[in-house]
Write a structure and sequence with these properties.
alpha/beta; 6-stranded parallel β-sheet; 4-stranded antiparallel β-sheet; 18 helices; elongated; RNA-binding
RNA sequence: CGCGGGGUAGAGCAGUCUGGCAGCUCGCCUGGCUCAUAACCAGGAGGUCGUUGGUUCAAAUCCAACCCCCGCAACCA
C-alpha cells in the first residue's frame, strides 16, 4: 500500500499586467518557489499556483494608449512574466489567466453564490468622475478639488452598480481572526487588518458600467455591468485549485486543492485578501485559505524604487550579472520575508562574494582538491579502502545538527534569511576544522609519517565532506541546480573517487 | 491624543517578554597559513544601546515623559 502523501498547495498573488515584470515580482516568485521546493523536499505532494490578473480599467487604458485591444495587450505581456519564471527557475503547476474561460465561470459562480446568499444588491453609485482619467476619484486623491493628472474638477455622476455588503460581514471576519491568530504572517499585518475592520467596514461597489469600462467578466444575468477587477481576480485561487462551478454551488470542495495552504502576496494587496476575499468566501460559505503570507517590499539604497529616481533594478539584469541561482540566493538572503528589505548592487555583490564565492564555492574547491591530491598519494602508499571512520561521521553530524534544526525552524517560520545564515555557519565550521587540523601538512610528510597520519588527515577532510552534504541538502530549496552539483561531487561511494570541482561561483567584478 | 512597528559599532541586524560582562554578519586594521576562487583562520579597532528622569546592588532590557523614522488609515487592481 502506498502511503498517502501529505498535500501542500501554495498560491502566489497574480500580478496585474499593466507593466512589465519588476524585481518585486521576482522576489515574490522566488519566495513561493523556495517554499514549494522545501515542502517537496519534505516528501509532500506540492502544487504551486501562479497566474496573471488581466482585466480592469488600468489595463484597458494602457492598451488604448498602445493602440491595441486589451486582449492583445495582455497576450503580449504574459510571455514576459513567463520568461521571468523560467529565468529564475521558478516552477508552477497551474498558471491561471483571469481571461481564461474557466476562470470566468468560477468568478461568475462565486458571484451567484454570494448573491444568492443575500450579500449583493443593486444601488445607485454616486461618485466624482474624472473624464480625463475615465475613472472615479476619491476625495483623498484630489488636489484642491481637482484631479491631479488632468487639473480638472471631476463631475459628480450616478450610475447603477452592484454592491457587496461588506458591512454585514464585519463580525464574521473578526470571529475568523479570533479563531485563527496565525492566519496572517507576519502578525503585524494581521493587527493592521483587524484594526481596519474594527473601524467599520462599508459596502463596496463591485461592478462597473460597460459603457465606461467593458474590460472585465460580465456580471451574471446583467450585460450592462462587468465585475470590479478584484471581484474577478481574487477567485483565481479557486480556479487554480481546481474548484468547479458545481463545487462552489454546493459548497463541497473535496476533490480540489481548496483551501490552499498558503497564499503568498505583497503588503500592498493585503487588505484585498485579508478582508475582501475572506468576506467573499464567508458570504459564499466556502473555506478560507489556511494562511496568508504577506511579504515586504524592496528598496534600493534606502529609497523607494521608482523610475523617476532612476534606481530601478531589473531582475533580468541581476540574472545576467550573477546568474539565476545566485540571484535567487541573494534575494532570499537580503530580503526578510516578514519586513521590507534594502538592496543595492554593491550589497548584492558583497554578499555574492562572501557567501557564495568565498564561502560555499571555496569550501568545495579546497576540500575536493585536497581529497583528489590526497587520494592519488593514498593509492600508492596506503590502502585505498575505507571512506572514513563511521563513529567519527556520527560525531561530525551531531556538530552540524543544531544548525540543521535551526534551519528547519527558520524555514517553517518563513525566515529564509535566517535559514541561509545557518548554512553559512556550517561552511564556517568546515573552514575552521580544516584550519585547525591542517590536513595539507600531511601531504608533505615522508612516507612513514604520512602513513601514520593518514587516518587523521582523512578524518578532517571527511568532516568537510559531511558538511558539504548537509549544505547541499539545505541549499536544495534555494539553489536546486547548484545543490545537485555539490551533492553529485561529494556523495560518492568511495572518497578516492572524488575529483576536484570546478568553481561553483566564479568571482564577479563589480563595474560601476 | 487614530492604530501599529521601529531607533543598539561605518552598514544591516539579534538581544528587550524572563534585568546580570553589549553580541552577530559585512566592511576596516594587524598577524598566521598556503589545500582553496587574492580564498581560509586568529586577533584587533570601532557603541553616550534615540533623549531625559525614575525603580534596582545591577537597566539596551522594567516604569514615566519626550524626540525622530516607517507602515496602515477602503472602492487605488
Amino acid at each position: 500500500m502506498e502511503q498517502e502523501k501529505k498535500q501542500f498547495t501554495i498560491a502566489t498573488a497574480i500580478p496585474y499586467l499593466n507593466a512589465k515584470a519588476h524585481i518585486g515580482h521576482a522576489l515574490e516568485y522566488v519566495f513561493s518557489d523556495v517554499i514549494a521546493r522545501y515542502h517537496k523536499q519534505q516528501g509532500e505532494d506540492v502544487v504551486a499556483i501562479m497566474g496573471a490578473d488581466e482585466h480592469g480599467q488600468k489595463i484597458a487604458r494602457s492598451a488604448q494608449d498602445s493602440g491595441v485591444t486589451p486582449q492583445a495587450y495582455v497576450d503580449a505581456l504574459v510571455p514576459k512574466f513567463l520568461e521571468l519564471h523560467t529565468a529564475l527557475g521558478v516552477s508552477y503547476d497551474r498558471f491561471i489567466r483571469t481571461t481564461d474561460a474557466d476562470h470566468a465561470r468560477i468568478a461568475q459562480a462565486l458571484w451567484k453564490k454570494v448573491q444568492a446568499a443575500g450579500f449583493i444588491d443593486e444601488r445607485e453609485y454616486e461618485g466624482l468622475y474624472c473624464v480625463g482619467c475615465e475613472a472615479f476619484k476619491t476625495e483623498a486623491e484630489l488636489v484642491d478639488g481637482k484631479c491631479p493628472d488632468h487639473l480638472k474638477e471631476p463631475e459628480m455622476i450616478r450610475e447603477k452598480n452592484y454592491f457587496f455588503q461588506l458591512s454585514k460581514l464585519q463580525q464574521a471576519l473578526l470571529e475568523w481572526y479570533d479563531a485563527h491568530p496565525q492566519w496572517i504572517v507576519p502578525q503585524s499585518k494581521m493587527n493592521e487588518m483587524r484594526a481596519f475592520i474594527e473601524r467599520g467596514l462599508e459596502d463596496i461597489s463591485i461592478s462597473r458600467d460597460v459603457s465606461k469600462m467593458s474590460w472585465g467578466i460580465p456580471v451574471p444575468d446583467d450585460d450592462s455591468q462587468v465585475m470590479y477587477v478584484w471581484f474577478d481576480a481574487l477567485p483565481n485561487y479557486l480556479t487554480g485549485a481546481g474548484v468547479t462551478p458545481e463545487m462552489i454551488a454546493s459548497g463541497d470542495v473535496s476533490g480540489s486543492r481548496w483551501p490552499v495552504d498558503l497564499i503568498n502576496l505583497g503588503k500592498d494587496i493585503n487588505r484585498f485578501h485579508a478582508i475582501l476575499f475572506a468576506a467573499m468566501l464567508i458570504a459564499a460559505d466556502l473555506p478560507l485559505p489556511k494562511q496568508l503570507g504577506v511579504h515586504g517590499f524592496i528598496s534600493v539604497n534606502g529609497q523607494k524604487m521608482s523610475k523617476s529616481i532612476g534606481n530601478v533594478i531589473d531582475p533580468i539584469d541581476l540574472i545576467e550579472k550573477f546568474g539565476a541561482e545566485p540571484t535567487r540566493y541573494l534575494l532570499m538572503a537580503e530580503i526578510p520575508f516578514q519586513s521590507d528589505g534594502d538592496i543595492s548592487m554593491e550589497k548584492l555583490h558583497d554578499r555574492y562574494t562572501a557567501d557564495l564565492s568565498n564561502g560555499i564555492g571555496n569550501l568545495l574547491s579546497r576540500t575536493t582538491t585536497m581529497v583528489e591530491k590526497f587520494c592519488a598519494q593514498a593509492d600508492e602508499c596506503v590502502c585505498q579502502e575505507s571512506g572514513f571512520d563511521a563513529s567519527k561521521a556520527e560525531e561530525w553530524k551531531n556538530e552540524f545538527a543544531p544548525h540543521e534544526s535551526a534551519f528547519a525552524v527558520a524555514m517553517r517560520g518563513m525566515d529564509f534569511h535566517i535559514a541561509i545564515q545557518q548554512i553559512q555557519k556550517i561552511v564556517s565550521l568546515c573552514d575552521e576544522k580544516l584550519e585547525q587540523e591542517k590536513p595539507w601538512e600531511v601531504f608533505k610528510l615522508k612516507e612513514e609519517e604520512f602513513t601514520a597520519r593518514y587516518g587523521e588527515a582523512l578524518a578532517s577532510l571527511s568532516y568537510s565532506l559531511i558538511g558539504l552534504r548537509s549544505i547541499a541538502r539545505l541549499l536544495q530549496s534555494f539553489i536546486p541546480e547548484t545543490a545537485q552539483k555539490i551533492s553529485k561531487t561529494v556523495n560518492v561511494e568511495r572518497i578516492h573517487h572524488i575529483r576536484k570541482a570546478a568553481p561553483l561561483f566564479p568571482r564577479i567584478e563589480l563595474n560601476k
